[in-house]
Amino acid sequence: MLLKIVQAGTPVLRQKGRDLTPAEIRSAPVQTLIELMRETMRDAPGVGLAAPQIGEPLRLAVIEDQVAREEQARTPVPFHVIVNPELRFVGQPPGEPPAMIDHFEGCLSVDGYQAVVPRSQRVQVSALDHRGESITIDATGWYARILQHEIDHLNGILYIDRMRPRTLSTGRNIGAYWLGQTPDEIVAALGEGDAGKR
Ligand code: ZN
User: How far is the centre of ligand 1, averaged over its atoms, from the C-alpha of 45 (Å)?
Assistant: First the structure.
């Protein structure tokens, strides 16, 4: 069974979700929810799905990425669940300010569009897993981007709140105009947006 993915404008996407207790996580309804979210994410297809996206104001997300792509610093990430996550930006080396990386990003709840979003190159996440046990994730590259995107969902934030607004594009137009160009080239071509400076 597939769950319905709600679109931008649906109030639940703008709410901060509720934390779950370890006992709730292990309960049959939440275990079933996790299974259905996995199925829905794979069908979409997507590399992450947060509970608010299927209408549940809970701080739970599923993640799985099967793609390897060097220019995105992207390597496959096996299926896993994060609950009640707390995110920290990490510099490289640790202690330095985080390096922010630009890439096009889309969202199953903002259907049809993508935009360039700066994200921290490295993050550390403390969370509970699907059994309600504490985990710490140290992630870089595309996986760090996925974590930032999904954890934003659990806090009522969408990528459009963080995007470089002038880069907003339909998926079709990215193929038509911007394929083969680096995010830096695309941002330079479209401008950072100086409307406010006039
Ligand atoms: Zn999303």
Answer: 12
- Taking the centre of ligand 1 as the mean of its atom positions, its distance from the CA of residue 106, in whole angstroms, is 7
What sign does the dihedral 79-46-116-189 (CA atoms) show? positive
User: Has this prediction a pTM greater than 0.85?
Assistant: yes
Lookup: tokens for 65: 């990425």
**Among all chains, which residue has been given the structure tokens 């903002």?**
110
Half-sphere exposure (CA, 13 Å, Cβ side) for 126?
Answer: 3
Its domain, for residue 129, covers 11-196
Q: Which of 35, 96, 150, 185 is catalytic?
A: 150
For residue 71, indicate whether it is catalytic: no
Q: Could you read off the pLDDT tens digit of each residue along the chain, which spans 198 residues?
A: 999 999 999 999 999 999 999 999 999 999 999 999 999 999 999 999 999 999 999 999 999 999 999 988 999 999 999 999 999 999 877 788 899 999 999 999 999 999 999 999 999 999 999 999 999 999 999 999 999 999 999 999 999 999 999 999 999 999 999 988 998 999 999 987 655 444
Block residue for tokens 């160009």 = 181
Count of structural domains, the chain? 1
CA distance 111 to 5: 10
Tell me, what CATH number does 137's domain have?
3.90.45.10
Residue 3 domain flag: no
Find the 119 Cα to ligand 1 centroid distance in Å.
Answer: 14
